[in-house]
Protein backbone atom coordinates (compact mmCIF):
# COMPACT_ATOMS: atom_id res chain seq x y z
CA UNK A 1 0.00 0.00 0.00
CA UNK A 2 1.25 3.46 -0.88
CA UNK A 3 -0.23 6.95 -0.41
CA UNK A 4 0.61 9.13 -3.40
CA UNK A 5 1.77 12.60 -2.38
CA UNK A 6 4.13 13.63 -5.18
CA UNK A 7 2.47 16.06 -7.65
CA UNK A 8 4.08 14.30 -10.60
CA UNK A 9 2.68 10.95 -9.45
CA UNK A 10 -0.77 12.43 -8.99
CA UNK A 11 -0.70 13.96 -12.46
CA UNK A 12 0.35 10.61 -13.89
CA UNK A 13 -2.48 8.91 -11.98
CA UNK A 14 -4.98 11.43 -13.36
CA UNK A 15 -3.93 10.57 -16.90
CA UNK A 16 -4.12 6.83 -16.21
CA UNK A 17 -7.61 7.14 -14.73
CA UNK A 18 -8.75 9.28 -17.66
CA UNK A 19 -7.90 6.40 -19.97
CA UNK A 20 -10.13 4.13 -17.84
CA UNK A 21 -13.26 6.28 -17.93
CA UNK A 22 -16.11 5.91 -17.27
CA UNK A 23 -15.44 3.05 -14.83
CA UNK A 24 -12.88 5.16 -12.97
CA UNK A 25 -15.15 8.22 -12.63
CA UNK A 26 -15.53 8.26 -8.80
CA UNK A 27 -11.76 8.14 -8.25
CA UNK A 28 -10.95 10.32 -11.26
CA UNK A 29 -13.16 13.13 -9.96
CA UNK A 30 -11.42 13.02 -6.58
CA UNK A 31 -7.98 13.14 -8.20
CA UNK A 32 -9.03 16.14 -10.30
CA UNK A 33 -9.91 17.95 -7.08
CA UNK A 34 -6.63 16.90 -5.45
CA UNK A 35 -4.62 18.20 -8.41
CA UNK A 36 -6.50 21.51 -8.37
CA UNK A 37 -5.81 22.69 -4.86
CA UNK A 38 -7.28 19.74 -2.94
CA UNK A 39 -10.15 21.68 -1.35
CA UNK A 40 -11.52 18.53 0.29
CA UNK A 41 -8.23 17.47 1.89
CA UNK A 42 -8.28 14.11 0.06
CA UNK A 43 -5.60 11.53 -0.63
CA UNK A 44 -5.26 8.48 -2.85
CA UNK A 45 -3.98 5.06 -1.87
CA UNK A 46 -2.68 2.51 -4.38
CA UNK A 47 -1.60 -1.09 -4.03
CA UNK A 48 1.63 -0.40 -5.96
CA UNK A 49 3.24 2.31 -8.05
CA UNK A 50 3.54 3.00 -10.93
CA UNK A 51 1.91 -0.24 -12.08
CA UNK A 52 -1.09 -0.01 -9.79
CA UNK A 53 -3.87 -2.55 -9.83
CA UNK A 54 -6.25 -0.75 -7.46
CA UNK A 55 -6.78 2.72 -6.01
CA UNK A 56 -8.91 4.27 -3.28
CA UNK A 57 -9.70 7.98 -2.89
CA UNK A 58 -10.58 9.21 0.58
CA UNK A 59 -10.33 12.05 3.09
CA UNK A 60 -7.02 12.44 4.89
CA UNK A 61 -6.81 11.83 8.60
CA UNK A 62 -8.86 9.66 10.92
CA UNK A 63 -12.60 10.14 11.38
CA UNK A 64 -14.70 9.23 14.43
CA UNK A 65 -15.62 5.55 14.32
CA UNK A 66 -19.30 6.27 13.63
CA UNK A 67 -18.91 9.03 11.02
CA UNK A 68 -19.54 7.21 7.75
CA UNK A 69 -20.06 10.53 5.90
CA UNK A 70 -16.45 11.56 6.40
CA UNK A 71 -15.23 7.98 5.96
CA UNK A 72 -16.31 7.81 2.33
CA UNK A 73 -13.99 6.00 -0.10
CA UNK A 74 -14.28 5.70 -3.87
CA UNK A 75 -12.68 2.70 -5.55
CA UNK A 76 -11.35 1.65 -8.94
CA UNK A 77 -9.37 -1.43 -9.84
CA UNK A 78 -7.68 -2.94 -12.86
CA UNK A 79 -7.29 -6.27 -11.08
CA UNK A 80 -9.78 -7.47 -8.50
CA UNK A 81 -7.11 -9.48 -6.69
CA UNK A 82 -5.03 -6.34 -6.26
CA UNK A 83 -8.12 -4.56 -4.97
CA UNK A 84 -8.75 -7.26 -2.38
CA UNK A 85 -5.11 -7.11 -1.26
CA UNK A 86 -5.30 -3.32 -0.94
CA UNK A 87 -8.40 -3.45 1.26
CA UNK A 88 -6.74 -6.06 3.48
CA UNK A 89 -3.49 -4.09 3.78
CA UNK A 90 -2.71 -2.97 7.36
CA UNK A 91 -3.66 0.68 7.79
CA UNK A 92 -5.78 0.91 4.65
CA UNK A 93 -9.20 0.75 6.35
CA UNK A 94 -10.56 0.57 9.89
CA UNK A 95 -12.79 -2.48 9.77
CA UNK A 96 -14.04 -1.72 13.29
CA UNK A 97 -15.44 1.67 12.14
CA UNK A 98 -18.35 2.79 9.98
CA UNK A 99 -17.25 3.61 6.43
CA UNK A 100 -18.51 3.60 2.85
CA UNK A 101 -16.81 2.32 -0.28
CA UNK A 102 -18.44 3.02 -3.62
CA UNK A 103 -17.65 2.45 -7.26
CA UNK A 104 -18.90 1.34 -10.64
CA UNK A 105 -17.43 -2.18 -10.68
CA UNK A 106 -18.97 -5.37 -9.32
CA UNK A 107 -15.89 -6.23 -7.26
CA UNK A 108 -16.50 -3.19 -5.05
CA UNK A 109 -19.36 -5.18 -3.53
CA UNK A 110 -18.08 -8.74 -3.75
CA UNK A 111 -14.69 -8.00 -2.22
CA UNK A 112 -16.28 -6.16 0.72
CA UNK A 113 -18.71 -9.05 1.17
CA UNK A 114 -15.90 -11.61 1.27
CA UNK A 115 -13.75 -9.67 3.72
CA UNK A 116 -16.73 -8.69 5.87
CA UNK A 117 -17.84 -12.30 6.14
CA UNK A 118 -14.41 -13.32 7.40
CA UNK A 119 -14.29 -10.44 9.89
CA UNK A 120 -17.89 -10.64 11.05
CA UNK A 121 -18.71 -7.15 9.74
CA UNK A 122 -22.24 -6.21 8.69
CA UNK A 123 -22.86 -4.46 5.36
CA UNK A 124 -25.61 -2.47 3.69
CA UNK A 125 -25.57 -1.92 -0.08
CA UNK A 126 -27.41 0.95 -1.79
CA UNK A 127 -27.64 1.02 -5.58
CA UNK A 128 -27.77 4.02 -7.91
CA UNK A 129 -27.77 4.76 -11.59
CA UNK A 130 -24.83 6.89 -12.72
CA UNK A 131 -25.46 9.49 -15.41
CA UNK A 132 -22.69 11.12 -17.46
CA UNK A 133 -23.07 13.92 -19.98
CA UNK A 134 -20.92 13.25 -23.07
CA UNK A 135 -20.67 16.89 -24.21
CA UNK A 136 -21.88 19.61 -21.81
CA UNK A 137 -20.77 22.30 -24.29
CA UNK A 138 -23.99 21.56 -26.20
CA UNK A 139 -26.11 22.80 -23.28
CA UNK A 140 -27.28 26.38 -23.73
CA UNK A 141 -27.38 28.70 -20.72
CA UNK A 142 -31.01 28.79 -19.53
CA UNK A 143 -33.05 31.95 -19.15
CA UNK A 144 -34.51 32.47 -15.69
CA UNK A 145 -37.89 34.00 -14.92
CA UNK A 146 -37.71 37.64 -13.78
CA UNK A 147 -38.66 36.67 -10.22
CA UNK A 148 -35.84 34.10 -9.96
CA UNK A 149 -32.19 34.87 -9.38
CA UNK A 150 -29.02 32.83 -9.11
CA UNK A 151 -27.60 32.79 -5.60
CA UNK A 152 -25.21 31.02 -3.26
CA UNK A 153 -25.81 28.86 -0.22
CA UNK A 154 -24.33 29.59 3.18
CA UNK A 155 -23.85 27.66 6.45
CA UNK A 156 -27.14 29.19 7.61
CA UNK A 157 -28.89 26.91 5.09
CA UNK A 158 -27.46 23.65 6.44
CA UNK A 159 -30.50 22.82 8.57
CA UNK A 160 -32.83 23.17 5.57
CA UNK A 161 -30.51 21.14 3.34
CA UNK A 162 -30.24 18.43 5.96
CA UNK A 163 -34.00 18.23 6.52
CA UNK A 164 -34.65 17.74 2.80
CA UNK A 165 -31.89 15.16 2.22
CA UNK A 166 -32.88 11.48 2.46
CA UNK A 167 -29.55 10.73 4.16
CA UNK A 168 -29.70 13.59 6.65
CA UNK A 169 -31.03 13.95 10.15
CA UNK A 170 -27.96 13.62 12.35
CA UNK A 171 -24.88 15.47 13.53
CA UNK A 172 -22.57 13.87 10.99
CA UNK A 173 -24.84 14.63 8.01
CA UNK A 174 -25.07 18.29 8.98
CA UNK A 175 -21.30 18.50 9.35
CA UNK A 176 -20.87 16.82 5.97
CA UNK A 177 -23.24 19.24 4.21
CA UNK A 178 -21.56 22.19 5.91
CA UNK A 179 -18.20 21.04 4.54
CA UNK A 180 -19.62 20.59 1.03
CA UNK A 181 -20.81 24.19 1.07
CA UNK A 182 -17.42 25.43 2.25
CA UNK A 183 -15.24 23.34 -0.04
CA UNK A 184 -17.00 22.56 -3.33
CA UNK A 185 -19.05 24.36 -5.99
CA UNK A 186 -22.79 24.69 -5.51
CA UNK A 187 -25.64 26.74 -6.93
CA UNK A 188 -29.08 27.80 -5.82
CA UNK A 189 -32.03 29.74 -7.18
CA UNK A 190 -33.75 32.31 -4.98
CA UNK A 191 -37.00 34.22 -5.04
CA UNK A 192 -37.36 38.03 -4.83
CA UNK A 193 -37.03 37.99 -1.05
CA UNK A 194 -33.95 35.76 -1.12
CA UNK A 195 -35.91 32.64 -0.21
CA UNK A 196 -34.46 29.36 -1.46
CA UNK A 197 -36.31 27.73 -4.36
CA UNK A 198 -33.91 25.09 -5.65
CA UNK A 199 -30.31 23.99 -5.17
CA UNK A 200 -27.63 21.57 -6.33
CA UNK A 201 -24.38 20.66 -4.56
CA UNK A 202 -21.23 18.85 -5.66
CA UNK A 203 -18.87 16.67 -3.65
CA UNK A 204 -15.22 15.77 -3.28
CA UNK A 205 -15.47 13.12 -5.98
CA UNK A 206 -16.48 15.68 -8.60
CA UNK A 207 -20.06 14.41 -8.72
CA UNK A 208 -23.37 16.17 -8.43
CA UNK A 209 -24.67 15.74 -4.90
CA UNK A 210 -27.76 16.86 -2.99
CA UNK A 211 -30.28 18.53 -5.30
CA UNK A 212 -33.76 19.68 -4.31
CA UNK A 213 -36.64 21.94 -5.31
CA UNK A 214 -39.01 23.13 -2.58
CA UNK A 215 -42.46 21.58 -3.20
CA UNK A 216 -44.29 24.86 -3.85
CA UNK A 217 -41.83 25.72 -6.65
CA UNK A 218 -41.93 22.48 -8.61
CA UNK A 219 -43.01 22.18 -12.25
CA UNK A 220 -41.40 25.54 -13.07
CA UNK A 221 -38.30 24.08 -14.72
CA UNK A 222 -36.04 25.27 -11.90
CA UNK A 223 -34.13 22.02 -11.46
CA UNK A 224 -33.71 21.77 -15.21
CA UNK A 225 -32.19 25.27 -15.33
CA UNK A 226 -29.94 24.67 -12.35
CA UNK A 227 -28.77 21.28 -13.64
CA UNK A 228 -27.70 22.94 -16.90
CA UNK A 229 -25.92 25.76 -15.10
CA UNK A 230 -24.04 23.36 -12.82
CA UNK A 231 -23.08 21.18 -15.79
CA UNK A 232 -21.72 24.11 -17.79
CA UNK A 233 -19.67 25.33 -14.86
CA UNK A 234 -18.23 21.89 -14.07
CA UNK A 235 -17.32 21.44 -17.74
CA UNK A 236 -15.63 24.86 -17.81
CA UNK A 237 -13.46 23.77 -14.85
CA UNK A 238 -12.43 20.63 -16.74
CA UNK A 239 -14.53 18.21 -14.70
CA UNK A 240 -16.76 15.44 -16.02
CA UNK A 241 -20.46 16.11 -15.59
CA UNK A 242 -21.82 13.12 -13.73
CA UNK A 243 -23.79 12.06 -10.69
CA UNK A 244 -25.52 9.16 -9.00
CA UNK A 245 -29.31 9.03 -8.96
CA UNK A 246 -31.53 6.78 -6.87
CA UNK A 247 -32.93 3.97 -8.99
CA UNK A 248 -36.48 4.96 -8.07
CA UNK A 249 -36.13 8.67 -8.87
CA UNK A 250 -37.84 8.52 -12.25
CA UNK A 251 -38.32 12.27 -12.48
CA UNK A 252 -34.57 12.88 -12.27
CA UNK A 253 -33.89 10.01 -14.70
CA UNK A 254 -36.22 11.65 -17.22
CA UNK A 255 -34.74 15.12 -16.74
CA UNK A 256 -31.16 13.96 -17.20
CA UNK A 257 -32.01 11.94 -20.28
CA UNK A 258 -33.85 14.91 -21.79
CA UNK A 259 -30.71 17.00 -21.28
CA UNK A 260 -28.51 14.43 -23.00
CA UNK A 261 -26.99 12.64 -20.03
CA UNK A 262 -26.33 8.95 -20.64
CA UNK A 263 -26.98 6.32 -18.04
CA UNK A 264 -23.90 4.17 -17.65
CA UNK A 265 -24.27 0.39 -17.82
CA UNK A 266 -24.67 -1.41 -14.53
CA UNK A 267 -25.00 0.24 -11.15
CA UNK A 268 -23.00 2.37 -8.78
CA UNK A 269 -23.03 0.65 -5.40
CA UNK A 270 -22.39 2.34 -2.08
CA UNK A 271 -21.33 -0.25 0.50
CA UNK A 272 -21.78 0.81 4.11
CA UNK A 273 -19.65 -1.16 6.53
CA UNK A 274 -20.81 -1.48 10.15
CA UNK A 275 -24.19 0.26 9.62
CA UNK A 276 -25.04 -0.09 13.31
CA UNK A 277 -22.10 2.11 14.23
CA UNK A 278 -23.06 4.61 11.53
CA UNK A 279 -26.42 5.15 13.18
CA UNK A 280 -24.92 5.79 16.61
CA UNK A 281 -25.29 9.45 17.61
CA UNK A 282 -22.64 11.62 19.22
Automatic annotation (TrEMBL):
<dbReference type="Pfam" id="PF08444">
    <property type="entry name" value="Gly_acyl_tr_C"/>
</dbReference>
<dbReference type="GO" id="GO:0005739">
    <property type="term" value="C:mitochondrion"/>
</dbReference>
<dbReference type="InterPro" id="IPR015938">
    <property type="entry name" value="Glycine_N-acyltransferase_N"/>
</dbReference>
<dbReference type="GO" id="GO:0047961">
    <property type="term" value="F:glycine N-acyltransferase activity"/>
</dbReference>
<keyword id="KW-0808">Transferase</keyword>
<comment type="similarity">
    <text>Belongs to the glycine N-acyltransferase family.</text>
</comment>
<protein>
    <recommendedName>
        <fullName>Glycine N-acyltransferase-like protein</fullName>
        <ecNumber>2.3.1.-</ecNumber>
    </recommendedName>
</protein>
<feature type="domain" description="Glycine N-acyltransferase C-terminal">
    <location>
        <begin position="188"/>
        <end position="265"/>
    </location>
</feature>
<feature type="domain" description="Glycine N-acyltransferase N-terminal">
    <location>
        <begin position="1"/>
        <end position="185"/>
    </location>
</feature>
<keyword id="KW-0012">Acyltransferase</keyword>
<dbReference type="Pfam" id="PF06021">
    <property type="entry name" value="Gly_acyl_tr_N"/>
</dbReference>
<dbReference type="InterPro" id="IPR010313">
    <property type="entry name" value="Glycine_N-acyltransferase"/>
</dbReference>
<dbReference type="InterPro" id="IPR016181">
    <property type="entry name" value="Acyl_CoA_acyltransferase"/>
</dbReference>
<dbReference type="InterPro" id="IPR013652">
    <property type="entry name" value="Glycine_N-acyltransferase_C"/>
</dbReference>
